Amino acid sequence: MQTSQWILALFVLLNTQICFGKQGPSANSSTATATVASAPLKVLLVAGGCCHDYAKQTQILKQGIETRIHSEVTIIFNPSKGTDATFEIYESDQWAEGYDVVIHDECSANVTDGPYVKRILAAHKSGVPAVNLHCAMHSYRWGNFRKAVNLGAENAGWYEMIGLQSTGHGPKLPIDITYEKSTNPIVKGLAPWRTINEELYNNVRVYPGAEVLAAGSQVQKINPKALKANPNAKPKVSKAVVAWTNLYGPKKTKIFSTSLGHFNDTVGDDRYLELVVRGILWTTGNLTEAGKPTKAYAIQP
């Protein structure tokens, strides 16, 4: 080989080692696959209405969700304290466009406008997942809602989405929470716990397609008059479903609900927030079988 050829070969070899190193292409080279951060999960939180401190609870939920998963929570808040609270966002047929999941945290028991409620439900029928919290279970009800409402009835729409019908609650006392032996990863590894004073919502009907995930048991104090009439009277123990999933509409949209969450301290409890966040991830298909966020939405330490 001529001298000029040796020089050329040596130049090529050195250039190759500089670009790729001795072990081949570098992970930082332009030929490597770059890790691109995923967009945050878009969460719409709608809250307001009667009987709760929604001004604070929306902030507790936003912070609790965004610190646990890669997400962006948009709050729509109506400061009304009435049971007739409505939300301007629902006036549009495209109200849920751009969001991955909607959290219903409104308390609008006396909102009975059929077309308004149908617009809300249409988004979920078309595939937008929902997470329903506490008084959402007692919203948008009319007719003889104190009795079990049948599927397909004119006033059944909201219950069909939620998957359960409730009409009221008992006293504000601690609730013992136990989780069902379910294969659903929402409850994977979760331990029983006791709430502070809370409201145990009754169950009038659990609809087909709903899966019970957690139950609550509440020991209710004996009425003084009843105790006077019967000194041997024992406290009443009330039980009810407090967390469940549902598959809604023709697209089997994933729905998660919990009737817990009356007081700020409950909403801010890590055990409550863990349950809600898992519900969000499950409805959007981002919860692993181990009950953890998928890689795209896990918060890196």
Question: Care to give the gist of this entry?
Answer:
The chain has helices at residues 3-20, 54-66, 114-125, 157-162, 224-229, 264-267, 270-283, and strands at 41-49, 71-78, 101-107, 130-133, 164-165, 169-173, 176-179, 193-194, 198-201, 205-206, 211-220, 236-248, 253-258. It has 301 residues and is α/β, with parallel strands linked by helices.
Overview of the structural elements:
The protein is of the alpha/beta class. 24% of the residues lie in helices and 25% in strands. The protein has a single domain, classed as Rossmann fold (3-Layer(aba) Sandwich). The strands form 3 sheets. A 9-stranded mixed beta sheet has the order 2-1-3-4-13-12-11-7-8. The protein is globular, with a radius of gyration of 26 Å. Mean pLDDT is 88; it is low at 1-36.
Residues in β-strands, percent: 25-35%
- The assigned structural class equals alpha/beta
Please write the string of helix (H) and strand (E) elements.
HEHEEHEHEEEEEEEHEEHH
- Rg, Å, rounded: 26 Å
Q: How large is the count of helical segments? A: 7
Q: Give the biggest beta sheet.
A: 9 strands, mixed
CATH class designation: Alpha Beta
Unreliable spans: 1-36
- Order of strands side by side in the largest beta sheet? 2-1-3-4-13-12-11-7-8
CATH architecture: 3-Layer(aba) Sandwich
Domain count: the total is 1
Percentage of residues in helical conformation:
10-25%
- According to CATH, the homologous superfamily is Class I glutamine amidotransferase (GATase) domain
